[in-house]
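Just wondering, can you check both lines?
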Amino acid sequence: MELGVISDTHGLLRPEAERALVGVDLILHAGDVGAPEILAGLRAIAPVFAIRGNVDTAAWASELPPTVVIECGKEILYMVHNLRDLDLKPEAAGFHVVISGHTHQPQQTMQNGVFYLNPGSAGPRRFNLPITLARLRVDKKPLRAEILNLDAAFSHS
């Protein structure tokens, strides 16, 4: 099973992001969606799980949970927008993957047997940070995400 992981769109669903997500089985949006149209656009590609980020304060966003647990095959994923809001020990809770956003910086690490993934930001450019999202195969070990730089990989296709 291949997941598309996106965050911090801030109301902008880039065509490059849509192309990068084609073929995934499920899309996870780690918050700061910015507008309901973003979720509609993502749902046209694959089923979506999304959480509320700190900019998601409008009435439409009240339907988004602050965290979500997703079972994908044998893997249990936990999604929270800001890792600073993580109020549990993922390894003790039985989570295999923690997905977050907020920092706009792509990162993947393994800590205490838990895979942490931040896909970076796929929305409006912030400072000099890259425009990125991730694809993650949860059926292949060791877990490793492919971070897609939308500037480099998709801007000229």
In short: The helical segments are 15-21, 36-43, 90-93, 150-154.
